[in-house]
Amino acid sequence: MNENGNQKYLALFGRQPSISLAEIQAVLGKNQVEDLGSASILESLPNMSYLGGTTKLAQIIKITPNPPLDDSPELITQIIDAHLKQAQRRKINLGLSIYSTSVSASKIKHTLANVKQQYKTKDISIRTIPSNQPTLNAAKVIFNKLTSDKGLEIVMLAHEDKWIVAKTVAVQDVNAYSRRDHNKPVRDSKNGMLPPKLAQIMLNLAQVSADSHVLDPFCGTGTVLQEALLMGVGGVFGSDLSLDMVEASKKNLSWLDSASRITGKWQVAQTDATTGNWQHNIDKVVAETSLGPALNSLPSTTELNTIIEQTNKLHLMFLKNLHKQITSKSVACLAFPAWIKANKSYINLPVIDQLHNLGYNFIDFRSDSHKPGLYYHRPNAVVARRLIVLTKLDKR
Ligand SMILES: C[S@@+](CC[C@H](N)C(=O)[O-])C[C@H]1O[C@@H](n2cnc3c(N)ncnc32)[C@H](O)[C@@H]1O
To answer: Among the atoms of ligand 1, which is closest to the Cα of residue 317?
Structure first.
């Protein structure tokens, strides 16, 4: 609770915490979010289904300087008692996740065994959820119904000199993501598909709402359009240079129409993003642009320079074309390619340094706990996606 007696929440972040933080700040407002590095404290509870970068949301019960795991974990029993009372049950599943380098999975196992024994003497059945890790993943929380009356997950996170103790209220629906990613009729492994979670993050960074019109000028198989419709956006428009990709998006969105309850309108057409005219009210632009060739390893400097030069030219032309068609109220969130060097630094497109001259405001998401720049990539990837949020510069 905060000083006004309001409930606070803990958001636990995924693999790329700087992006998760930027997303949740965009959704709730910066002043509603306290940055803890790999997690944050929230003043209100966002809708988990629409967040791509947060893996768990938990209701904060106590912030304490004392490590809450010892041989008589009173706080744990208090939380269990409250849950049993509220759910009016004598049998529950129990999970315990500790986000701290100082606590091992075996210590957690030992604590859970003690708790189980303690309740057994009161004729209450606690089924503890085993894990080889100190934290339970979303799939385990869902499978064991730990966010329902039937179960409970207690979360403890160590931050600086304090412990945040909380009760999980929502986790990322990993099954729903994989269903909509794998069941759609057309997938495109050649160009690489945008993970639905990243599409959600980008839509949130562009601050889409129900009355937004979202354009994806590099729509490919339509992941951004799909996620925007699922988030309840009123109208989406996709375009792509490739007729095959236009057909792919149409097939996927028709499937979505039949498989889910979406109310927004959608349209897809063939357009070259460097020269075309979208003839639509461009309110929000969300796109993973052309990332250049898929690479398994970093090519020679000469080859890489050629790739960068060609990709940069396309981006430059696209940004000039887009600029003519947006208003000062439009917001764009774009994923540009960035190449990862052996020393883990990034090579960005040169056009990023020209954004101001091209008439764009580059909204930088900086935090004290993360390096600058929002980059998304798999652990051994060669090409990362750099997320750029832009508005049109006001000419005074
Ligand atoms: C990385 S893919 C986008 C994938 C998409 N986000 C998805 O989920 O399937 C980039 C797309 O840009 C398209 N593209 C390349 N050059 C283009 C151009 N000049 N204008 C419009 N689309 C272009 C490609 O056909 C490809 O579908």
So the answer is: 19
